[in-house]
Design goal:
There is one protein chain. This protein is mainly α and 184 residues long. The protein has nine helices and four strands, in the order E-E-H-H-H-H-H-H-E-H-H-E-H. It has helices at residues 26-42, 49-58, 65-71, 77-82, 84-92, 96-120, 134-138, 140-152, 166-183, and strands spanning 2-4, 10-12, 127-131, 157-162. Strand 1 and strand 2 (10-12) form a beta hairpin. The relative contact order is 0.14.
């Protein structure tokens, strides 16, 4: 998250990339789901429909075949990121692990946003929030989970607007700032 307050101060949190921390991203969600599927296959974790969904998605029969498919270079990181959709489908269907993964991802996004709000002094009053990114655009349940997580942290995003391109969000916020100045 990146933002600017009325005094022109800027702050950011998150977005460190897939290796150092890209919590809440499609790749991070799919990676956690694959980890949950592996644990379920081993009996180290609870059963989840995610295991059978990944086997089906890759056209394989045995869980151990996931190792070669994932680590053998056949599947690239951007493709894995798209598998977050499977997690959202299973969460909607009631798979407990999928629900937990989505909830945790939304909580991570909310914590990053809370950090930005603290840095800019925006934590006490309602603030406009413009979100972008494939998951937040196409997964209404994810936006709702983010909103709930923000409210639990005491933040008051109002309104929340979804835009296809991040630069549009900056434009919208700039327009609102100009309108506030004109009214003053």
């Amino acid at each position: 998250f990146r933002s600017q307050n009325a005094r022109g101060e800027t702050a950011r949190a998150g977005g460190w990339g897939y290796f150092m921390g890209d919590e809440g991203s499609g790749y991070a969600i799919a990676r956690q789901a694959l980890q949950a599927a592996a644990k379920a296959a081993d009996g180290r974790g609870p059963k989840t429909n995610l295991l059978s969904r990944f086997l089906q998605l890759l056209g394989i029969q045995q869980p151990f075949e996931l190792i070669q498919r994932i680590h053998g270079g056949e599947v690239e990181r951007p493709t894995i990121a798209t598998w977050a959709d499977v997690v959202f489908e299973e969460a909607t269907g009631g798979d407990a692990l999928a629900v937990e993964i989505v909830s945790n991802a939304a909580r991570e996004l909310a914590v990053a946003l809370a950090s930005v709000c603290r840095q800019l002094g925006l934590e006490s009053a309602p603030f406009p929030l413009v979100v972008s990114g494939g998951l937040l655009i196409h997964q209404a349940a994810y936006r709702d989970a983010l909103r709930r997580a923000l409210l639990k942290l005491g933040l008051k995003p109002d309104p929340i607007q979804v835009v296809a391109e991040p630069v549009w969000g900056a434009t919208i916020l700039a327009q609102r700032a100009v309108e506030r100045v004109r009214r003053s």
